[in-house]
């Protein structure tokens, strides 16, 4: 049985990456952080000079899209779904990086094959 060539192996790995990308669910870029805020009421507990207790935590989604920074507050009831989409997006980015790496290696084999060592020609 003939061993699999490097080209065939790379193509097989690329197909596996494509298959995994197609299985991903909904995606969303960004990250979520817990935010605490002080309100505008000067007599509120969040403005206590000795023991300030800010309001929160509030879930805040931050991401960049089309070159613009964006942020939104996320309701608790959708935080779980958003977390799944964020993880799917991170997985997509990892898979695209892997696909790119494999495609570069495949291109090197197909487009820029190594030449056999040949002695230099004598000029004279």
Describe the structure.
- The protein has 124 residues and is α+β, with helices and mostly antiparallel strands.
- It has one domain (6-110).
- 44% of the residues lie in helices and 20% in strands.
- The chain has a 3-stranded antiparallel sheet, covered by helices on one side.
- A hairpin with a 2-residue loop joins strand 2 (55-65) and strand 3.
- Helix 1 packs antiparallel against helix 2 (76-111).
- The longest helix is centred in the last third of the chain and has 36 residues, at 76-111.
- The radius of gyration is 27 Å and the shape is elongated.
- The model has no long low-confidence stretch (mean pLDDT 92).
Mean pLDDT reading: 92
Helix content: 40-55%
Major pleated sheet:
3 strands, antiparallel
The domain tally reads 1
Radius of gyration: 27 Å
- Beta-strand percentage range: 15-25%
Briefly say what this structure is.
This protein is α+β, with helices and mostly antiparallel strands and 124 residues long. The chain has one domain. The chain is built from two helices and three strands.
Task: Give descriptors for this structure.
single chain, 2 helices, 124 residues, alpha+beta
Task: Draw up the topology in text.
Elements: H1 6-23, E1 31-37, E2 55-65, E3 68-74, H2 76-111
Antiparallel strand pairs: 1-2, 2-3
Helix pairs in contact: 1-2
